Every structure is written in C-alpha cells, then in structure tokens.
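# nightly structure sweep
# worker-07 picked up a monomer target from the shared queue
# config: single-sequence mode, recycle default, output format = structure tokens
# input follows
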Amino acid sequence: MRTCNSFGVYPHMEGTMTQPKAPIIESLTGSFLVSTPQMPDPRFEEQVIYICAHSNEGAMGLAINKPNLSFSLAEVLKGADLPVPFGELPPIYIGGPVELESAFILYRSDYKTEYQLEVSPTVSLSRETKVLQDIAEGHGPEKYLFLLGYTGWGPGQLERELVEDGWLTVPADDHIIFELADDLKWKAAAMQFGIDIATFGDVIGYA
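# output follows
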C-alpha cells in the first residue's frame, strides 16, 4: 500500500488495483471478519472487517463500523480545496491500524472510475483522487464509506488467526456495509448465521 502524497489525506492511485494472482487458498475476498468476544487484540474489539483482497500473498481489509468523530469529511474536502456538497455526509471511518494517513473509498459498483478494485460484483474500492472530486461535486457514488488506514495480514497470518479464538468469518452483506447504523453492524453481521456474537465462544473461524 502506498502512503499519502502532498494532496493531504487522499493519495492518488498511479495504477489499477488488482487482486493477487493465483491464490492457492480459499479466498475470503468479499467476506466479513467479525471479531468475537475472545479477540485478544483490543484494537479489534467489536469490529467488522470487510476483506478486500486475500490470497497466499496475504490479506487486506477495512473495518466498516468504527467511525472517527474527531473530524469530518467536510473538513477533508475543505482541506483539499474541494467544495462541500449539500446534505449530510457520512463519517470518516478508521479502516485499520496500518497507514492511517492513507485514504480509501469503498462504494457500490454502480459508480465507475478508471482505477478501482472490484471486490465483489456490487462493491468496489478506490484510492483515486477523482472519486473524492466527484463526491465534492455531487456526482460521486451514492453509497460509500471514506476510510483512513487498513488492516493487513502477511502470508499465512490470517489463516493462523482463524484457527484461534478471535475471528468469525461470514458472507458480506452490502446492506450492512452501507445502510445499517454503525453500532448495529457487529451483531447484525454475525446474526446472518443466527449467531449471537455477544455470547459467541465455541465455534470460530469458519467460512
């Protein structure tokens, strides 16, 4: 992942984002990782991470339910000398502890841009400056999350974590990503499988 440039918090993509080649494992790309009450790392307490890329080379995901209320997207736009559109803007999310100065936009794939990663048939990810410009001008993606930082795993690291207490893997749901209130996402993601995540403790890490 590249760090940000002089533009501020939104780095310009210099090439097309592509998924790692020829995975030799069952890819979790497009799935949710839901932290269980047994999660040993307090940074991931009650988190839902959307996996954007996963192969034998490692994995990358974005936490979708941890807004940072200390500053706003309007401030980001003003700092980039972009207009602030009318209406309510979504919060800024902390996508993970890695490269917090780097920004990502996760959005429904009915919006298209030149440089984007198609995570699923309905969800794409970009670091392209044009997406932020389009949002400022009122013709960007209708549903999106603006995130700073990401969560990353080296080769085999995520697989090791999945056999320990900490993560539950479930299919992702676009409604949970873009529509549901942030304080409901953690329980709702697990409840897709009828699991009460607040009391979960016996079965973990299955796809």
